[in-house]
Amino acid sequence: MDFPLPLLNAAEYIQVEEVGHLVLLLAFIVLAAKLAGEMVQRFASLPSVLGELGAGILIGPFALGGIEIGSLGPLFEVPKAIDDLGNAVAVITPVSPELFFVAEIAAIILLFQAGLETNRTQFFRWVKPATAVAAGGVVVPFAFGFVATIALGFASLDSTQEMLPALFVGAIMTATSVGITARVLSDIRRLDTPEGTTVLAGAVVDDVLGILILAVVIGIADTGEVSIAEISIIAAKAIGFWLGLLIIGSLLANRISDAFLWFRSPGVLVGLALFLAFLASAIAEIYFGLAMIIGAYTIGLALSDTELKHRIEEPMIQIGHFIVPVFFVVIGMQVDLGAMSGAITFGIVLSILGILSKVIGSGLPALAVGFNRRGAYRIAIGMLPRGEVALIIAGIGLSAGVIGQDVFGVAILMTIVTTLIAPILLVPAFTSGGSGLRRPMGGARAHRARGRPEGE
């Protein structure tokens, strides 16, 4: 008996075609990521993440991906939105919403993995020093960015409105892209060292502080003043959610693990674990204003000392090998080298200050809380990359009309420099030399704290 094929209307055909186009783009992204990562790692002995970022820049809409290919048009193009007057305008994120969504899923998986691989006991031990590292890594970069913007004539103190570009540049400078550092430290198995744990904890605190600064700047841009009550509410929500999820998640972790281990179907444990990661990420973003990756990292950290972690660790690594490179390629695709041409001097100055501000702002507090110069340097480099966090803040400033394309280009240049240089410096910093602690503990305990077995 013949069964009739279902009929699709025109709108449904278009949707299927769009899905097919997205799959085609993902195919090119995965191929570019793997080829570039292999080349960089094999022939230059550099982290593969560097090749993935470079591949993104190369195939992005502002480079080869924007070239017209006959009647097919460009492979990647900057999406357009329609304003109230019916005019086409560029959106904040210069990649399609579908690609951005896939990249965010990849980032959630990356940080969930990082949380699983972090020693929870070590995290609680180093979270207090990490808070000092994060505070310095926010205050000093903000001050450097604010002063440089005014000194080079891109903002002034004559009025609140003319001061706004400097405030936005300062906010951009405070960002830390924990995804890049987590990827590199995971590859070289240094996530659970005192320095690695401090960097990850510091990046979480940095994100909370960065949200508060951004809220202040946006408040000034919208109304010309700041509501202390509103900022206090934002702070209470962000800090309360993070601490609540971490503490309650840690207390319930073994019960969650036991409940999940009741299931026997193939792959069910990974599915349930990802359910928790996605749920925590969504709640963090929608209800508390925190980046989704903070929710993913925190729930992964809560589960890091359970039997569930050991059962899902290898499958999660395999999933990560496929999807995580997509995240870094999409970051690279958002880089517009041409937007920097109008303010190249400012861009160079800000890039240098972007490096120095994290080295000083995060390195000096690390020295003060018990790390030696080697450990402080590792932490400072780990806090260095701005990545997608800075791009998002810069995009908000551009879309609000607070900063122009010139300052936006400068922010992009600083982001590129700090994002690309961090992986280059991280690997030798963590793989050479001894302990990063100023007062190392003795015996086997010291080796365990450094995340390496005795005798290594």
Distance between the termini: 70 Å
For the largest beta-sheet, the strand count, sense and barrel status come to: 2 strands, antiparallel
**Oligomer class:** single chain
- State mean pLDDT (0 to 100 scale): 82
**Count of extended strands:** 2
Number of domains: 2
- Please report which band the strand proportion falls in: under 5%, 5-15%, 15-25%, 25-35%, 35-45% or over 45%: under 5%
Explain what the structure shows.
With 456 residues, this protein is mainly alpha-helical. It folds into two domains: 10-82; 93-449, Up-down Bundle (Na+/H+ antiporter like fold). 72% of the residues lie in helices and 1% in strands. Strand 1 (80-82) and strand 2 form a beta hairpin. Mean pLDDT is 82; it is low at 441-456.
Supply database-style keywords:
mainly alpha, globular, single chain, 16 helices, 2 domains, disordered C terminus, 2 strands, 72% helix, 1% strand, two-stranded antiparallel ribbon, Na+/H+ antiporter like fold, 456 residues
